[in-house]
Amino acid sequence: MNRSEAQHYDVASYALGLLDGPDAAVFEDHLVACDRCAAELESFLPVASLLADVDGEAFLDAEAAVAEGDMLDKMINTVTYERSRTKVRRTFSLAAGVVALAAAVGAGLLAGNIGGTGGRTPQAQPSASILTDTDSGVLASVPAIRSTDPATKVQASVRLAEKPWGTALALELRNVRGPLKCQLVAVGSDGYGEVLSTWTVDQIGYGNADNGKSLQLAASTALKRADIDRIEVQSVNEGARPGRLVSVDV
């Protein structure tokens, strides 16, 4: 069995967060172009969400009377202890984003060069895509929520639309300069933040006097629209805490 064929069997492992970083990245590249795996992954997402809430100790106590032995222990360890709930939530969110993006590409909703604009290509995770001028109408019918950070002066415009699988998001940034590595974070009403995408900003930046074009991104999350408290764009420096560039209360 070659690697391409094996990728068809990685869907469950990816949905449960069992693939390591390199294998997950390879599978995500495969997923965008494979309708079969995208459809299968979508069917796994509710299961992955439920497993994120499993209490391993309580489950063991309830099942001990009818299922003794190493098999149950191994399953609980795999699902509950080897993965933190934060990791599961982030994997679930990224998986939903990949499925949504693959479906949008197949339907022609994100026309043009999804990889970037011209020679300037911010590096985004699979759950987000850099929008070109022809793509800027994504979620255009949804009212925008705008914010300007008083310290950084970065301007953000966010559009959110609830979907059966979670929430679709369109972001527009202006008055941002680099060099920067950034991440897009959805903060839930429970206070937990989920990283939806990362990208880089070069020295010229976007939406300023040197480059009038804004930076536009499309992303998605498994969080329901009503469960999202705010959207943040953060700068990321190696070995340091993320810094807030702009926050939009939604």
TrEMBL record:
Membrane-crossing segments per the record: 92-112
Sorted UniProt keywords: Membrane, Transcription, Transcription regulation, Transmembrane, Transmembrane helix
InterPro entries attached to this UniProt entry: Anti_sigma_zinc_sf
Protein name listed in UniProt: RNA polymerase subunit sigma
Organism: Pilimelia terevasa
